[in-house]
From TrEMBL, chain A:
Residues 120-319 form the ABC transmembrane type-1 domain. It comes from Kineosporia mesophila. Keywords: Cell membrane, Membrane, Transmembrane, Transmembrane helix, Transport. The keyword Methyltransferase does not apply. This is ABC transporter permease. The lineage of its organism: Bacteria, Bacillati, Actinomycetota, Actinomycetes, Kineosporiales. Its main location: membrane. The keyword Protease does not apply. Belongs to the binding-protein-dependent transport system permease family. The chain crosses the membrane at residues 45-70, 122-148, 160-179, 191-212, 251-276, 300-319. Coiled coil: none annotated. Pfam families: BPD_transp_1, OppC_N.
UniProtKB/TrEMBL annotation, chain B:
Residues 1-35 form the signal peptide. This is ABC transporter substrate-binding protein. PANTHER family: ABC TRANSPORTER SUBSTRATE-BINDING PROTEIN (PTHR30290:SF83), PERIPLASMIC BINDING COMPONENT OF ABC TRANSPORTER (PTHR30290). Coiled coil: none annotated. Keywords: Signal. The lineage of its organism: Bacteria, Bacillati, Actinomycetota, Actinomycetes, Kineosporiales. It comes from Kineosporia mesophila. Gene3D superfamilies: Dipeptide-binding Protein, Domain 3, Periplasmic binding protein-like II.
Length: 331, 595
């Protein structure tokens, strides 16, 4: 990318006079998506965030392959890497060697690289699916509330208030504490992951619900909605074919910003010990274990800490970039 | 006995447990001191030089120089300084500064420290009525700090008042459980009348009547519950800030939540006391000090003792072990505690003894030890439940293994004998708040997987671990908890104190709450009844050792580790040794070198 205003298609500038006189390049119509993409491409930070996000997703998907190439099985003990008296890694910097790229866990010598990579799977899976759930519930209820108004709006809005006032963390702790071994045809980690997705997703929808409701409130008074209505369009058509496409931008932006929040929330729950069961690695769980060793082996805390930090930061800049790109008032 | 014992063990567990949790969390860790090396009482005694582990078996910096100020710090606070309301080992140890009991533990290093000697009484208890009645006679010349004489009536009142667990919730309940005819909800403050089961025929004699024969009553008489309390000075729950001293020191400046001081009690007569040398002039205690701060001040000599004796934290430990100069001031002190795994015969296939044996053979013993902190300050690999600190303990190794990381061949053999040559699946429960138990669970998971035994780890909150989860037989069975992390420390170093609540199948109740999670052997129960009634000490110790062996023969537990704690003694400290009765340095013996 050479200049900030370098737009593909040859012409950098539309030349109306030249067009009128029959010369120059024809003015091209640009869709909203295209405009957004062009803007996004010029935002280096957002692009970097996007690249990191894509990389993280690829690493998570191909975790067994990555670990097979560069690490050891995530739950394998390596007592030979540990000082038996101090329980800390024998090599400096938390046991970083050519064989153990990010060092080893104190006490049992598990490969931190492998555990962080496998931890990404759980973190991203939970964050994505929980966000999806929030977006689904939030969008549907937000559109309905905004479009119908009156008592429907009151009911849904008060429900949102109720959810927002809910002591979510306490509830999550209690619920995850009493979850049985088998339920809904799932068991073990699958059940706990499903439960985390439900807890995080189901209680975060009002944030997106409120935004969607607000947007819908202003959109439903617009001319194109009136036009559709006067042409005899039914309500579902107006809701999902006329309003929803116009809501796509804010939803996309807030979903991207919700993902890092959910990653942090999942880490917090794992940190508090209500996430998946050991020895399955999660970032929050690793951080929680590292607190015992923070003075003697700070690397152990750094590794999952940096992983969470980078991921959350990447999603946040990408989300910010998307908002700038999609919001016409931003520039 | 049974209906009541559960209550006993509850409190019993609470005391040592709290200490051990923090100990494990702080991740303390040693060189195998082979436990029995105390042999020669000569014990590096007299002027013993500082050396790693020296205070475990002998006296370090032996001295009788008086004077100076001994400085203590506590990361938290006492449960209570009222002798009738406290249940921490360190608190019982520290209470010897300002209180005296009928009998107490000998102030000596090594195994000798577990011996009972008379304190206020002229001799150990005299039993009659087949062990149901116990009589003590007081020494002459005993006085409270205000100069008034200590009478048997003061001890009777003290024992009676602490029975009221609403006013004094912390203390042990041995007297509630064993005294004859204690009315339901008895309280000296409400009922205003004495118990018939404690008699004081004269000012020097006190007689206890029990509801059952009990050969170890002297251990009860050593509890702070028998510290005399003058009735007219008793202020109920407020007494803790104005305890009337019967020992060599008295409270001088008590600031709740911050600090207190002890100064010499001039009414204490050294001639009546064979236990306490009372070396320092003053004792200063600071409360609520950050744990890392305590460690650093200990290492720099700014502080003499960390009163809770939880051992130094991971950071300080790394520092101490790396420096030979500092390491020689450290002790890996053995505790009356075992960290083990209960094997639940109610969950198939553990109803088959060979499947239970397979677990013991396959377990990675080093891994389990590392989980609890390694050989230095963590503990020694255990081969039976009874730790070596308990008098009469015998080394039993019924399951020798080819490698300390587990014996796959023998485990496979046992599995075949059990009819599960390819292994099986089961669950392992542990307390979620305890990183050491989690690490041990993961180690078990790894080592058992090698012979095909697949473990699902199941953490439960420690507050209800015994009452609702692992300790509730119906729950454990339903959840398939075949293996359960467990830990136990005794209130005093003898077979009864350690094993009675741990291996008697009759303490297991459907409603939960017992700390015996797995030992269900009628033979063991019979042996316990014999031992409890045995009056002869040597025979009794042999019987407890036999019980220990019987439990291992049944493969009801994987014994894990005999716990230790890494303690640090600054150079300023004199007369230092580890007491096998108090799980730490004997405070009453300590002195301070003037700098």
């Amino acid at each position: 990318m050479s200049a900030p205003l370098d737009v593909p298609g040859g012409a950098t500038e539309a030349q109306p006079e030249a067009v009128l006189s029959g010369a120059g390049v024809a003015i091209q119509g640009r869709s909203l998506t295209r405009i957004a993409w062009l803007r996004l491409r010029r935002d280096r930070w957002a692009l970097a965030g996007g690249v990191i996000v894509v990389l993280l997703i690829l690493i998570a998907i191909f975790a067994p392959l990555v670990v097979g190439l560069l690490g050891h099985p995530p739950n394998e003990f390596h007592p030979d890497q540990i000082d038996p008296d101090l329980a800390t890694p024998i090599h400096p910097l938390g046991g970083i060697t050519g064989d153990f790229l990010l060092g080893v866990e104190p006490l049992n010598g598990r490969d931190l690289f492998s555990r962080v990579v496998y931890g990404a799977r759980i973190s991203l899976l939970i964050a994505f699916l929980a966000t999806l759930l929030s977006v689904l519930i939030g969008t549907v209820l937000g559109v309905v509330a905004g479009y119908y108004g009156r008592w429907v709006d009151t009911l849904i809005s008060r429900t949102m208030d109720l959810f927002l006032a809910f002591p979510l963390l306490v509830f999550a702790l209690a619920l995850a504490g009493v979850v049985p071994d088998k339920a809904f045809g799932l068991n073990g980690d699958a059940l706990r992951i499903a439960l985390l997705i439900f807890i995080i997703g189901f209680f975060n929808w009002p944030y997106i619900g409120r935004i969607v409701r607000g947007q819908t409130l202003s959109l439903r008074e617009r001319e194109f909605v009136d036009a559709a209505r006067s042409l005899g369009a039914r309500t579902p058509y107006i809701l999902f074919r006329e309003l929803l496409p116009n809501l796509a931008a804010p939803i996309l932006v807030y979903a991207t910003l919700l993902i890092p929040t959910n990653i942090l929330f999942e880490a917090a729950l794992s940190f508090l010990g209500v996430g998946v069961r050991p020895p399955t690695p999660t970032w929050g769980g690793m951080l929680s274990e590292a607190t015992t060793y923070y003075r003697v082996d700070p690397t152990f805390m750094m590794v999952p800490g940096v992983a969470i930090f980078v991921t959350v930061l990447a999603f946040n800049i990408l989300g910010d970039g998307l908002r700038d790109a999609l919001d016409p008032r931003a520039r | 006995m049974l209906a009541k014992t559960v209550k006993v063990e509850h409190t019993m567990r609470r005391r040592r447990t709290t200490i051990a949790v923090a100990g494990a969390a702080a991740l303390t860790v040693s060189l195998t001191a082979c436990g029995g090396g105390s042999s020669s009482g000569d014990g590096g005694a007299s002027g013993g030089a500082a050396k790693f582990d020296a205070a475990v078996t002998g006296v370090v910096n032996s001295s009788d120089a008086k004077g100076g100020t001994l400085r203590y710090a506590n990361e938290g606070e006492w449960d209570s300084t009222d002798p009738g309301d406290t249940y921490y080992g360190y608190s019982w140890n520290f209470a010897r500064y300002y209180t005296r009991t009928l009998v107490t533990y000998k102030s000596a290093p090594g195994a000798e420290g577990a011996t009972l000697v008379p304190d206020l009484a002229t001799s150990l208890g005299k039993s009659s009525d087949g062990g149901k009645t116990w009589t003590y006679t007081l020494k002459d010349g005993l006085k409270f700090e205000d100069g008034s004489p200590i009478t048997s009536g003061d001890i009777r009142y003290a024992v009676e008042r602490q029975l009221d667990k609403t006013t004094f919730p912390h203390g042990p309940t041995y007297f509630n459980d064993f005294l004859a005819d204690v009315p339901e909800g008895y309280s000296v403050y409400k009922d205003k009348k004495d118990l018939d089961s404690i008699e004081t025929p004269d000012d020097k004699t006190i007689v206890f009547h029990l509801n059952q024969a009990f050969s170890g009553f002297d251990y009860f008489a050593a509890l702070p519950s028998t510290v005399p309390v003058p009735k007219d000075k008793d202020t109920g729950s407020k007494y803790k800030s104005s305890v009337v001293s019967s020992g060599p020191y008295k409270f001088a400046d008590y600031q709740s939540g911050k600090s207190f001081k002890l100064v010499r009690n001039d009414q204490w007569d050294a001639a009546t006391d064979e236990v306490r040398p009372a070396l320092p002039d003053n004792i200063d205690v600071t409360l609520n000090v950050n744990k890392d701060d305590i460690d650093q001040r200990l290492l720099s000599g700014d502080l003499d003792v960390s009163v809770t004796q939880l051992g130094i934290g991971a950071a300080a430990k790394a520092q101490v072990l790396a420096d030979p100069e500092q390491k020689k001031n450290a002790d890996s002190a053995p505790l009356n505690r075992t960290w083990f795994t209960s094997i639940n015969s109610e969950v198939a296939p553990f109803d088959n003894i060979d499947c239970r044996k397979a677990v013991i053979y396959a377990a990675d013993r080093t891994g389990y030890q590392t989980a609890f902190g390694g050989s230095i300050g963590g503990g020694d690999v255990a081969t039976s439940l009874l730790p070596p600190t308990i008098p009469g303990q015998q080394k039993i190794d019924l399951y020798p293994v080819s490698s300390p990381t587990g014996d796959e061949a023998k485990a496979k053999e046992a599995l075949t004998a059990c009819g599960k040559p390819d292994g099986f699946e089961t669950s392992y429960s542990y307390r979620v708040e305890r990183p050491a138990e989690k690490a041990a669970a993961e180690s078990m998971q790894q080592s058992l997987a090698k012979v095909g035994i697949k473990l699902t780890l199941k953490p439960y909150p420690q507050s209800d671990y015994f009452s609702l989860y692992a300790g509730k037989p119906s729950f454990a069975k339903k959840e398939g908890l075949g293996l359960m992390a467990n830990g136990w420390g005794a209130d005093w170093a003898d077979g009864y104190g350690f094993l009675s609540q741990l291996v008697d199948s009759r303490v297991i109740r459907e409603t939960g709450g017992a700390s015996n999670l797995s030992v269900r052997d009628p033979e063991v129960d019979k042996l316990i009844d014999l031992a409890v009634n045995e009056q002869d000490t040597a025979k009794r110790e042999q019987e407890w050792a036999d019980i220990d062996k019987k439990v291992m023969e049944g493969a009801w537990v994987y014994p894990g580790v005999w716990a230790k704690v890494l303690l640090y003694r600054p150079k300023t400290l004199t007369n230092v040794f580890v007491s096998s009765s108090y799980d730490g340095y004997d405070y009453s013996a300590l002195g301070v070198a003037k700098s």
